[in-house]
Amino acid sequence: MQRTTKPVRAVSAWGRLSAFIALLAAACAIAALPAAPATAAGRCHQLSALTGVASYGGTASMSYSSGTVTGPPGAVEFVETASVSHSASNLQIAKVKPETNEIGQSFSAHGQPTGGTVQIDSTYSDNLGGESHQTYEGPAAPPSNGVEIEIDSSKCTYQLLVSFYVQTNTTHSALGAPPDDPGVEDDATTPVTPIPANLALKGSAALPPSGSGGNAGSAGLYDISGDPGWSTVVETALGTGGTPGTASVSWNLKPVMAKKPKHHEHHGKHGRG
Fold first, then answer.
1. In total, how many domains does the chain have?
2. Cα 25 to Cα 178: distance, rounded to the nearest angstrom
3. What is the mean pLDDT of residues 178-205?
4. Distance (Å, rounded) from C-alpha 254 to C-alpha 96?
């Protein structure tokens, strides 16, 4: 399943640095990522076991926090201050089923995850009196992207892609503040992770954040570009020499094995002599 392309949105002056955010943030995190162990003689013995998996199910949690960011870089007459806080815990995932795509074996489920607890609390202000506050607290709704498990058979590894969506409430007091938006959809891609022998997919990791999307590398990626008007805080942080904030993901998915067909034996009836 391919990731849905997010709509083009209008951004403030903060968005001018978006071209290099994904590459720069990913490069900072990839050095700390442990290399996946090579399989014996280049073979992935877990691949044959994966053919017996009917689906995956479990939970995931993900979060992003920008801290307080002030910009645009070098601004004097017009200065903006913003903070973005997104968290989603205990997201419910079920019936992530196998499919074959151009990459090879994978698992996917549309419209998931749902449920769990999502909290959005982002603030904005500027020196001209603009103010804005974006909030939400409650369960996740079906996202546009869903859940994917991409299998790399050549390295015996996988990456999990998980999203959440909520309809936020945004209030603002001035035209310069971020406008009402259609909601928040965050995408998290886990780092490349070895497939365990028991096929249970579990882990946690810090992720490089991105406010402009892009492809996830082996270090994974946390993409907040589905939050129009607010995601530019990431680029602003980098442009002022700061960090793009912190992001993380944790996941626990267990395999549901396919039921083996029963073989029925036919016994002839024998009458008594």
1. 1
2. 24
3. 90
4. 10
Mean per-residue pLDDT, 200-222 = 91
CB neighbourhood size of 24 (10 A): 15
Residue 3 lies in a domain: no
Do the domain assignments include residue 43? no
Residue-number span of the structural domain to which 198 is assigned: 13-32+57-256
Instruction: Give Cα separations from 119 to 132, 205, 209 (angstroms).
Output: 17, 20, 18
For residue 65, being part of any structural domain is answered with yes
Residue 253 pLDDT > 50:
yes
> Which of the pair, 77 or 232, is modelled with greater confidence?
77
Tell me the mean pLDDT in the region 147-163: 94
Flag whether pLDDT at 124 surpasses 50.
yes
Distance CA 36, CA 25 (A): 21
| 46 in a structural domain | no
For residue range 24-33, list pLDDT tens digits in order. 344 444 444 4
